[in-house]
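sorry for the late reply, my laptop died twice this morning and i had to redo everyting from scratch. anyway the thing you sent over, i finally got around to it. pasting the sequence first so we're on the same page, its 573 residues, then the predicted structure underneath. double check i copied it right bc i was rushing
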Amino acid sequence: MNQDEILQKAKTWLTVTFDQSTQKEIKDLIDNKPSELMDRFYKDLEFGTGGMRGTMGAGTNRINKYTLGKNTQGLSNYLLEHSKKDQPKVVIAYDCRNNSELFAKEVANVFSANGIYTYLFESLRPTPELSFAVRELNCDVGIVLTASHNPPEYNGYKVYYDDGGQIVPPQDKAIVDEINSLKFSDIKFNGNEDLIEIIGEKVDEKFIEASVKNSTFASTKGRENLKIVFTPLHGTSITIIPQALKQAGFSDVHIVEEQREPNGNFPTVKSPNPEEPEALKMATELANKIGADILIGTDPDCDRLGIAVRNNENELVLLNGNQTFCILVSFLMKKWHEEGKINGKQFIGSTIVTTDLVKKIADHYGVETKTGLTGFKWIAKMIRDVEGVEDFIGGGEESFGFMVGDFVRDKDAVSSTLLACEIAAEAKSKGSTLYDELMNLYVDHGLYKEHLISVVKKGMEGAKEINQMMVNMRQNPLLEIDGEKVKTLNDYQKSTSKNFIKGTQSNIDLPKSDVLIYETENGTRIAARPSGTEPKIKFYFSVNTEVKNREEIASAEKRLDEKIKRIIKELSL
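ok and here's the structure:
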């Protein structure tokens, strides 16, 4: 769009369809802030890998009453046409962010104004509980207002289908088409209170019960001896995790008091992202003060978690998402094996940018690894596609998310927290640690080292730059990485896999996605993927080597780190 087209688009927000405060905000942008006006209207927010997410404010490229209302109106129209129920049902949750409660009520009003029965949580709740509630309450759809681990100025809108998983093809396209066919004046904002039911404690109890059942095992000992430090980072997990830990038998739990209260401004951290060590600084200080065995922090909507454990020098180290995934899924498969539940009809779910170590571990137990695109909606789809035929053990990805069983169909920091503590307790009762368990996996299956670089490119120009970076990599493919010949290039946008060694090409049987993955003859991998929820492009690096014993790990890890640094320099990143 050119500047004149954007200006005309913005002026439509000065009509009676929009309230006075919105009109005032837009007029100020037109008169005084032309560059910001461009950014707010040059595109419409779209559903990405994690739903619709963006900064709050007036405009089509912002999260506000009207962009959320239009999505909800389109979704309402879709449900009224496609629901198998006489009266469709939805359930809505929201997190700790500024305006989340207000937005949740607006969304409930639109659904109820369209004659759809609406369950609304009484106060903030974890995202995984919303996924659970969809099936527990037999709903057609679930909505959660959240921006996950994004900065305070963000909010978002995730849509879950009747299986508790986020929407996927063909429903997603049909819903988006319905949304795009609407005008803002089509939104019905006048809610029907008779169709809105407030829910809370009863669903909480069932969710906690299911979480404990799926994440703990009768054979585990010593839960009461595990010293845990937990921080919700001002988010929703405070409503569920302490109670779930207590119910599971973990009694020595210490909460970071300064971060206990939910707060959308996240006053004690720069970013409420448990992937970042700085976000867990207060928790680390407390853990060192009291000599904790394990530290766990969750993001604002409680779907991601960061775990720190003690290494051989008794220092707390933050595990990355790949390491956590490997530890958790290995333990689950071990328990399934001990209980005689593995018979060739089980699988785990992973993604195209997640470590290959998980597949090595699964192969050891005779369990299939299904690999999908980035985002847990694809793992949920794996479960749905084979429901009743194959058993889902667990799934995860590199971005600090994990699923335990299929009772929640999205990444879930509640059950993952319980499972991590279960593993740590069992290890401690045997004189080991969770860190030791990871080292044992490296010796048994190979040492894998991953690294992620995110290049931020904000605004309209940034989006063009990211697109051009992907174009350049497609037009000028790498043929060598750190002296290793590139074996394959998988282009998920073109659905092609090129083998440069054999000179052949095959098709990729996955939905199209803007991702490129290079792999060398030695198993070195580089993936490039524009983020679906943030203004950035991500580069994933994976290298590996065999180690014969634990004494070799430190030196081997150093060599792999140096290798990754050479590759990054080679790519000028």
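The chain has four domains: 1-42, 44-205, 223-445, 448-570.
thats about all i looked at so far, will dig more tmrw
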